[in-house]
Amino acid sequence: MTELLQKIHDIGIVPVIAIDDASKAVPLAKALVAGGLPAAEVTFRTEAAEDAIKAIVAEVPDMIVGAGTVLTKDQADRAIAAGVSFIVSPGFNPEITRYVLDKGVCMLPGTATAGEMEQAMALGLEAVKFFPAEQNGGIEKIKALAGPYKTLKWMPTGGVNTGNLANYMSFHQILACGGTWMVKKDLIENEKWDEITSICKAAVKNMLGIELRHIGINSASEEEAESTAKLLCTLFDLEYKPGNKSIFAGTPFEVMKFNGAGTNGHIAIAVNDVDRAVYHFGLNGAAFDESTRQTDEKGTKFIYLKGEFGGFAIHLIRK
């Protein structure tokens, strides 16, 4: 993926904004950034869109700003002149798509069928919008399409909300989800910036799907590991599951056969997408040991945070 698409992927949720008063664009953008979502698709459904984009680009440099509902070349030109980083359309118009790409700007055209997606891929696109997502079969349709289109990424928009967000974000070919639930019209009109920030934070938590996977316990020897694991299995009625480097006592405990990471052991945190978690934890001050990163065709599957926490190392692992 390009650097821009990777950043959109890591942010994970792109708020879709229809704003009527451009003077509220900057405080809205700051509320989104504070909530962990420094990205927005400002739709050209309102007359204030162009001025809103200009204001955000000028005053909130941490924000990735795109233009949505772009239907014409004139709208594309105005959006590009306003400083957008990407352009989104509700449907797939090959002429407009080529026009935007020729301008050197990232384009995410709306698609709903395999034919539209193939045409977009033929133009060199790595990612497309899937719209309206829920009305077109939602995540199950995307998973079905992913079989023949293993390299394509989707940004589902339309009907995505807190109830189904995790279902979308647990699939590795989702670029990001577009949504309006954190930027409802009444929240913007009444300048409920703190509430918008709170909704964004809750959305990020939901998207990441953070779960405690297991506690790792270091041992000085294989014999000590066996003894500890058997005791845990007896105490908590867990299954004894020996392995090459460690012994699992059910799912909650991994007893190492040696002194592994951390003075006392490690804590494994499972998330839907490790790359997104690394980005969002990083916003809160976490640092990661890049030498421990393990990847596959789906992205990062494992990485340790730098340092220890109460004598324990912490690593992220993909669900």
- The percent range for strand residues is 25-35%
Portion of residues within helices:
25-40%
The average pLDDT score comes to 97
Query: CATH-wise, what's the superfamily of the largest domain?
Result: Aldolase class I
Biggest sheet details = 8 strands, mixed
**What class do helices, strands and sheet pairing give?**
alpha/beta
Task: Write structural notes for this entry.
The mean pLDDT is 97. This protein has helices at residues 3-11, 25-34, 49-59, 73-82, 94-102, 114-122, 138-146, 165-169, 185-189, 193-208, 222-236, 274-283, and strands at 13-17, 39-43, 64-68, 86-88, 106-108, 110-111, 127-130, 153-156, 177-179, 211-217, 240-242, 246-249, 253-256, 265-271, 288-296, 299-305, 312-318. The protein is built from twelve helices and 17 strands. The chain folds into two domains: 3-208, TIM Barrel; 211-318, Roll (2,3-Dihydroxybiphenyl 1,2-Dioxygenase, domain 1). α2 runs parallel beside α10 (193-208). The chain has 319 residues and is α/β, with parallel strands linked by helices. α7 (138-146) links the parallel β7 and β8 (153-156). The strands form three sheets. The protein has an eight-stranded mixed β-sheet with strand order 11-12-13-10-14-17-16-15. A six-stranded parallel β-sheet has the order 5-4-3-2-1-9, sandwiched between helices. Strands 6-7-8 form a three-stranded parallel β-sheet, covered by helices on one side.
